[in-house]
Amino acid sequence: MLVLITYDVSTIDGAGKARLRKVAKECVNYGQRVQNSVFECILDASQLLLLKDRLVSLINEKEDSLRFYYLGNNYQAKVEHFGSKVSYEAEGVLMI
Questions:
Q1: How many CB atoms lie within 10 A of CB 4?
Q2: Cα–Cα distance for residue pair 85/35, rounded to 1 Å
Q3: Looking at the whole model, is its pTM more than 0.85?
Q4: How far, CA to CA in Å, does 15 sit from each of 29, 59, 67?
Q5: Which of 16, 29, 31, 61 has the fewest Cβ atoms within 10 angstroms?
Q6: For residues 30 and 27, what is the distance between their CA atoms, to the nearest angstrom?
Q7: What is the pLDDT of residues 6-30, one digit of tens each?
Q8: Are 1 and 72 in contact (CB under 8 A)?
Q9: b/e map of 34-43 (b: 16 or more CB within 10 Å)?
Q10: Alpha-carbon gap, residue 81 to 84, rounded angstroms
Q11: CB neighbours of 38 closer than 8 A, spacing ≥ 6?
Q12: In what order do the strands lie in the sheet with 32-35?
């Protein structure tokens, strides 16, 4: 299923900057960054549980925000893209 993950991590201090890097690094392991703090991830149920648990453990719930949007398996009709960044095929091959 396609899951859109967004986050807002407070970077007022060094600890916040470290949390931001850790959250971003964890999201990169599971999906494609589509904007600064927005990732599209194709996940199965077990991957979703692992990633959600990991991300929740990384943030400070009093200062940071983490959101999951579940777009499901038929997400192609639910996503539109306009603008300069080239869209990508979420289930296609990613070059690293």
A1: 18
A2: 10
A3: no
A4: 21, 10, 21
A5: 61
A6: 5
A7: 999 999 999 999 999 999 999 999 9
A8: yes
A9: beebbbbbeb
A10: 9
A11: 4, 5, 6
A12: 32-35, 38-42, 2-8, 65-72
